[in-house]
Amino acid sequence: MGIDRLQHNFKKIVFVSEWQKKMFERHHNVDPNKGIVIGNGVNPFPAYEKPRDCINLVYCSTPFRGLDVLLEAFKMLPELGIKSPPIYLHVFSGMKIYDRDESEYQKLYDALRQTPNVRYHGPVSPAYLHDWLARYGHILTYPNTWEETYCMAVHECMSANLVILCPDRGALKETAAYGQFYATDEYLKTLASHEHAEVFAKAIRHAIEYYYLSPSWREKTLRDQKLFADHRSWDTMARCWEILLQMEGL
Which pTM was predicted? Predict the structure, then answer.
Protein backbone atom coordinates (compact mmCIF):
# COMPACT_ATOMS: atom_id res chain seq x y z
CA MET A 1 0.00 0.00 0.00
CA GLY A 2 1.44 3.38 -1.02
CA ILE A 3 1.89 6.42 1.16
CA ASP A 4 -0.99 8.13 -0.65
CA ARG A 5 -3.34 5.56 0.89
CA LEU A 6 -1.71 5.58 4.29
CA GLN A 7 -1.32 9.32 4.85
CA HIS A 8 -4.68 9.60 6.61
CA ASN A 9 -3.12 7.58 9.47
CA PHE A 10 -0.70 10.42 10.24
CA LYS A 11 -1.27 13.89 11.65
CA LYS A 12 1.78 15.25 9.86
CA ILE A 13 4.44 13.92 7.50
CA VAL A 14 7.83 15.53 8.11
CA PHE A 15 10.24 16.15 5.25
CA VAL A 16 13.83 17.43 5.38
CA SER A 17 13.42 19.91 2.49
CA GLU A 18 10.79 21.68 0.42
CA TRP A 19 12.09 19.83 -2.63
CA GLN A 20 11.49 16.46 -0.97
CA LYS A 21 8.01 17.56 0.11
CA LYS A 22 7.13 18.63 -3.44
CA MET A 23 8.37 15.33 -4.88
CA PHE A 24 6.10 13.37 -2.53
CA GLU A 25 3.19 15.60 -3.41
CA ARG A 26 3.84 15.15 -7.12
CA HIS A 27 4.65 11.45 -7.26
CA HIS A 28 2.76 10.05 -4.28
CA ASN A 29 -0.24 12.41 -4.07
CA VAL A 30 0.61 13.50 -0.53
CA ASP A 31 -1.74 16.23 0.69
CA PRO A 32 0.24 19.53 0.75
CA ASN A 33 -1.42 20.39 4.07
CA LYS A 34 -0.25 17.10 5.57
CA GLY A 35 3.44 17.74 5.03
CA ILE A 36 5.79 19.96 6.99
CA VAL A 37 9.51 20.66 6.54
CA ILE A 38 12.03 20.34 9.37
CA GLY A 39 15.53 20.08 8.01
CA ASN A 40 18.58 18.28 9.32
CA GLY A 41 20.93 20.06 11.68
CA VAL A 42 24.62 20.45 12.38
CA ASN A 43 26.77 20.84 15.44
CA PRO A 44 28.52 24.14 14.58
CA PHE A 45 32.17 23.67 13.65
CA PRO A 46 34.97 25.67 15.28
CA ALA A 47 36.67 28.28 13.11
CA TYR A 48 40.38 27.84 12.38
CA GLU A 49 42.94 29.72 10.33
CA LYS A 50 43.25 27.73 7.10
CA PRO A 51 46.50 27.06 5.17
CA ARG A 52 47.49 29.88 2.81
CA ASP A 53 50.21 28.09 0.83
CA CYS A 54 47.82 25.84 -1.10
CA ILE A 55 44.20 25.38 -2.13
CA ASN A 56 42.55 22.21 -0.80
CA LEU A 57 39.60 21.05 -2.84
CA VAL A 58 37.40 18.50 -1.07
CA TYR A 59 34.98 15.72 -1.99
CA CYS A 60 33.30 13.99 0.97
CA SER A 61 30.30 12.08 -0.32
CA THR A 62 29.60 8.61 -1.71
CA PRO A 63 31.53 7.67 -4.88
CA PHE A 64 28.42 7.47 -7.07
CA ARG A 65 27.47 11.13 -6.66
CA GLY A 66 29.89 12.57 -9.21
CA LEU A 67 33.36 11.56 -8.04
CA ASP A 68 34.24 10.31 -11.52
CA VAL A 69 33.21 13.66 -13.00
CA LEU A 70 35.32 15.50 -10.42
CA LEU A 71 38.43 13.45 -11.16
CA GLU A 72 38.13 14.12 -14.88
CA ALA A 73 37.58 17.83 -14.23
CA PHE A 74 40.55 17.99 -11.86
CA LYS A 75 42.83 16.54 -14.53
CA MET A 76 41.78 19.40 -16.84
CA LEU A 77 42.79 22.18 -14.44
CA PRO A 78 46.46 22.50 -15.51
CA GLU A 79 45.28 23.39 -19.02
CA LEU A 80 43.20 26.29 -17.68
CA GLY A 81 46.10 28.37 -16.36
CA ILE A 82 44.73 29.02 -12.87
CA LYS A 83 46.41 31.76 -10.84
CA SER A 84 46.72 30.32 -7.35
CA PRO A 85 49.02 28.41 -4.98
CA PRO A 86 49.38 24.64 -5.53
CA ILE A 87 45.98 22.91 -5.83
CA TYR A 88 45.22 19.58 -4.14
CA LEU A 89 42.13 17.40 -4.25
CA HIS A 90 41.30 15.53 -1.05
CA VAL A 91 38.76 12.73 -1.43
CA PHE A 92 36.98 11.24 1.58
CA SER A 93 34.76 8.61 0.01
CA GLY A 94 33.99 4.92 0.10
CA MET A 95 31.26 2.40 0.75
CA LYS A 96 32.96 0.44 3.56
CA ILE A 97 31.65 2.92 6.08
CA TYR A 98 28.18 1.66 5.12
CA ASP A 99 29.36 -1.98 5.23
CA ARG A 100 28.64 -2.31 1.51
CA ASP A 101 30.66 -3.89 -1.29
CA GLU A 102 32.66 -1.35 -3.29
CA SER A 103 34.45 -3.54 -5.82
CA GLU A 104 32.80 -1.63 -8.68
CA TYR A 105 34.62 1.55 -7.57
CA GLN A 106 38.14 0.08 -7.31
CA LYS A 107 39.21 1.38 -10.73
CA LEU A 108 38.08 4.85 -9.72
CA TYR A 109 39.95 4.64 -6.40
CA ASP A 110 43.08 3.42 -8.21
CA ALA A 111 42.82 6.32 -10.67
CA LEU A 112 42.57 8.76 -7.76
CA ARG A 113 45.69 7.31 -6.13
CA GLN A 114 47.62 7.57 -9.38
CA THR A 115 46.68 11.18 -10.17
CA PRO A 116 49.20 13.87 -9.12
CA ASN A 117 48.03 16.19 -6.31
CA VAL A 118 45.10 13.92 -5.41
CA ARG A 119 44.98 12.59 -1.86
CA TYR A 120 42.57 9.67 -1.55
CA HIS A 121 41.77 9.30 2.16
CA GLY A 122 38.99 6.74 1.72
CA PRO A 123 36.11 6.56 4.19
CA VAL A 124 37.04 8.01 7.59
CA SER A 125 35.25 8.56 10.87
CA PRO A 126 32.95 11.59 11.14
CA ALA A 127 35.08 13.04 13.94
CA TYR A 128 38.25 12.87 11.83
CA LEU A 129 36.52 14.28 8.75
CA HIS A 130 34.92 17.16 10.64
CA ASP A 131 38.21 18.17 12.24
CA TRP A 132 40.04 17.96 8.89
CA LEU A 133 37.42 20.04 7.09
CA ALA A 134 37.49 22.76 9.74
CA ARG A 135 41.30 22.97 9.77
CA TYR A 136 42.31 22.41 6.15
CA GLY A 137 39.42 22.48 3.67
CA HIS A 138 38.97 25.44 1.31
CA ILE A 139 36.42 24.53 -1.38
CA LEU A 140 33.88 21.70 -1.54
CA THR A 141 33.97 20.59 -5.18
CA TYR A 142 30.76 18.63 -5.63
CA PRO A 143 29.64 17.98 -9.23
CA ASN A 144 26.61 16.18 -7.92
CA THR A 145 24.88 13.67 -10.20
CA TRP A 146 22.32 12.74 -7.55
CA GLU A 147 19.02 14.35 -6.62
CA GLU A 148 19.72 15.22 -3.01
CA THR A 149 16.88 15.37 -0.52
CA TYR A 150 19.07 17.50 1.78
CA CYS A 151 22.87 16.79 1.70
CA MET A 152 24.58 16.74 5.08
CA ALA A 153 28.02 16.97 3.43
CA VAL A 154 27.15 20.43 2.10
CA HIS A 155 25.68 21.57 5.42
CA GLU A 156 28.74 20.44 7.35
CA CYS A 157 31.19 22.00 4.88
CA MET A 158 29.37 25.33 5.13
CA SER A 159 29.79 25.27 8.90
CA ALA A 160 33.46 24.24 8.46
CA ASN A 161 34.11 27.36 6.35
CA LEU A 162 34.45 25.82 2.90
CA VAL A 163 33.16 27.59 -0.18
CA ILE A 164 30.49 25.36 -1.72
CA LEU A 165 30.65 24.63 -5.46
CA CYS A 166 27.75 22.48 -6.65
CA PRO A 167 24.89 22.37 -9.18
CA ASP A 168 21.31 23.40 -8.55
CA ARG A 169 20.11 19.81 -8.25
CA GLY A 170 17.45 18.39 -5.95
CA ALA A 171 17.40 20.18 -2.61
CA LEU A 172 20.90 21.66 -2.91
CA LYS A 173 19.53 25.14 -3.59
CA GLU A 174 17.96 25.04 -0.13
CA THR A 175 20.86 23.49 1.76
CA ALA A 176 23.70 25.34 0.03
CA ALA A 177 22.47 28.89 0.54
CA TYR A 178 25.17 31.39 -0.49
CA GLY A 179 26.98 28.57 -2.31
CA GLN A 180 28.25 28.81 -5.87
CA PHE A 181 25.83 27.09 -8.25
CA TYR A 182 27.53 26.39 -11.56
CA ALA A 183 24.66 24.77 -13.48
CA THR A 184 20.99 23.85 -13.29
CA ASP A 185 19.70 20.30 -13.09
CA GLU A 186 17.91 20.70 -16.43
CA TYR A 187 21.14 21.74 -18.15
CA LEU A 188 23.25 18.96 -16.67
CA LYS A 189 20.77 16.34 -17.84
CA THR A 190 21.64 17.31 -21.43
CA LEU A 191 25.37 16.67 -20.96
CA ALA A 192 27.47 13.55 -21.27
CA SER A 193 29.86 12.81 -18.39
CA HIS A 194 32.93 14.31 -20.13
CA GLU A 195 30.95 17.44 -21.04
CA HIS A 196 29.89 17.80 -17.40
CA ALA A 197 33.57 17.50 -16.43
CA GLU A 198 34.52 20.30 -18.83
CA VAL A 199 31.82 22.58 -17.41
CA PHE A 200 32.86 21.75 -13.86
CA ALA A 201 36.57 22.30 -14.52
CA LYS A 202 35.80 25.86 -15.62
CA ALA A 203 33.62 26.35 -12.54
CA ILE A 204 36.48 25.17 -10.31
CA ARG A 205 38.85 27.64 -11.98
CA HIS A 206 36.38 30.45 -11.39
CA ALA A 207 35.88 29.48 -7.72
CA ILE A 208 39.61 29.13 -7.03
CA GLU A 209 40.51 32.47 -8.58
CA TYR A 210 37.75 34.24 -6.66
CA TYR A 211 38.82 32.49 -3.46
CA TYR A 212 42.49 33.35 -3.92
CA LEU A 213 42.33 36.76 -5.60
CA SER A 214 39.33 38.31 -3.84
CA PRO A 215 39.70 38.15 -0.05
CA SER A 216 36.61 40.33 0.47
CA TRP A 217 34.47 37.95 -1.63
CA ARG A 218 35.92 34.94 0.20
CA GLU A 219 35.32 36.38 3.66
CA LYS A 220 31.76 37.47 2.90
CA THR A 221 30.84 34.16 1.28
CA LEU A 222 32.25 32.09 4.12
CA ARG A 223 30.65 34.32 6.76
CA ASP A 224 27.21 34.18 5.14
CA GLN A 225 27.43 30.41 4.61
CA LYS A 226 28.50 29.71 8.18
CA LEU A 227 25.81 31.92 9.70
CA PHE A 228 23.19 30.17 7.58
CA ALA A 229 24.51 26.68 8.41
CA ASP A 230 25.07 27.23 12.14
CA HIS A 231 21.62 28.75 12.59
CA ARG A 232 20.28 25.37 11.47
CA SER A 233 21.88 23.54 14.37
CA TRP A 234 20.59 20.35 15.93
CA ASP A 235 19.42 22.42 18.91
CA THR A 236 17.33 24.56 16.57
CA MET A 237 15.91 21.50 14.82
CA ALA A 238 15.07 19.94 18.19
CA ARG A 239 13.08 23.05 19.12
CA CYS A 240 11.21 22.80 15.80
CA TRP A 241 10.27 19.22 16.64
CA GLU A 242 9.15 20.21 20.14
CA ILE A 243 6.92 22.97 18.72
CA LEU A 244 5.42 20.58 16.17
CA LEU A 245 4.65 17.95 18.78
CA GLN A 246 3.09 20.55 21.10
CA MET A 247 0.92 21.91 18.29
CA GLU A 248 -0.30 18.42 17.47
CA GLY A 249 -0.93 17.62 21.13
CA LEU A 250 1.61 14.83 21.25
Answer: 0.94
